[in-house]
Amino acid sequence: MRIRKAVFPVAGLGTRFLPATKASAKEMLPIVDKPLIQYAVQEAISAGAQELIFITGRSKNSIMDHFDKAYELEAELEARNKTKMLETVRDIVPPGVTCIFIRQAEALGLGHAVSCAWPAVGDEDFYVILADDLIDGRLQPALAQMHRVYQQYGTSVLATQRVPKNDVGSYGIVETQPVGPGLSEIRRIVEKPKPEEAPSNLAVVGRYILTPRIFKLIERTPRGAGGEIQLTDAISAMLNEQTVLAYEFEGTRYDCGSKLGYLRANVEFGLKHPELADDFRSYLEGLTAGWNAETPKAAKG
Ligand code: G1P
């Protein structure tokens, strides 16, 4: 049992990163030297996806260009014998992987974005990846971990993570029944509840394995939180018909939809970058040594 198709909803406006995102896609913001969307694509490919379906909107042409062949650039790099850079550019889409772009004309919410992928996904189980949730999987990419669960249970699987009680209003929150270590069956799911109404602090983060039944259910889903057609509400309807599992992945998630999460990701990926790690670490050590030297003075003063 394999999943071949991955859906990337990338039509969001990215207002939290204005002015950077006025004319360019938030998914193209780099973490060190690679855009967020490329991390998401690599994760999908590592979990077996071969057809990448991007749900795009206005100002998102750079995503299409990024995953297209860049003839002039490749010819130039080849002529200058820049073999390593040429490989970097060519490896963006490995052989056998195809990209499909579907335009979401109106920003009607995540559920609506996913439903735009229906003609391309058809009657198959599929992945959904939200690129601004960047996950550094401890043993394996998060989606590959979820695929292992899927192979065992053959049903929908959502990536989840414990969040502070005060943050539940930013997520889909689940109430669950344990199945095994890190794995549980979802009994209830609520989009962005108030802390006092949240069924738990187990939050859905941006990785989903879904059965195609979701498309019919989205079609019947009225506008919910924020006036949008919510994927969470369609998943809630699915609970009456099919098992949906919550999987607590192993690894670190960076909320790159927030400025602080984005900066953390850049620092931590910088510290692991093969070419930069040593110099960047020395720089940070120097910087923090400066702070530590200043702190006692500030405390005295
Ligand atoms: C979306 C989903 C939410 C989920 C979150 C994960 O919300 O609607 O259920 O918990 O992604 O990042 P958004 O962050 O797009 O508001």
Helix content: 25-40%
Instruction: Give the names of the bound compounds.
Output: 1-O-phosphono-alpha-D-glucopyranose
The general outline is globular
Strand count:
13
* Biggest sheet record: 5 strands, mixed, barrel
Strand order of the largest sheet: 8-11-9-10-12
List the main descriptive attributes of the protein structure presented here.
301 residues; alpha/beta; five-stranded mixed β-barrel; two-stranded antiparallel ribbon; 11 helices; 36% helix; globular; binds 1-O-phosphono-alpha-D-glucopyranose
Describe this protein's structure.
With 301 residues, the chain is an alpha/beta fold. The protein has helices at residues 36-46, 61-66, 71-79, 83-90, 110-115, 118-121, 142-153, 213-219, 231-238, 259-270, 277-300, and strands at 5-9, 30-31, 34-35, 51-56, 98-103, 126-129, 133-137, 156-162, 172-180, 183-191, 202-210, 244-248, 251-255. The longest helix is centred in the C-terminal third of the chain and has 24 residues, at 277-300. 1-O-phosphono-alpha-D-glucopyranose (G1P) binds next to strand 11 and helix 9.
Secondary structure elements and pairings:
Blueprint: E1 5-9, E2 30-31, E3 34-35, H1 36-46, E4 51-56, H2 61-66, H3 71-79, H4 83-90, E5 98-103, H5 110-115, H6 118-121, E6 126-129, E7 133-137, H7 142-153, E8 156-162, E9 172-180, E10 183-191, E11 202-210, H8 213-219, H9 231-238, E12 244-248, E13 251-255, H10 259-270, H11 277-300
Parallel strand pairs: 1-4, 1-6, 4-5, 8-12
Antiparallel strand pairs: 2-3, 6-11, 7-13, 8-11, 9-10, 9-11, 10-12
Helix pairs in contact: 8-9
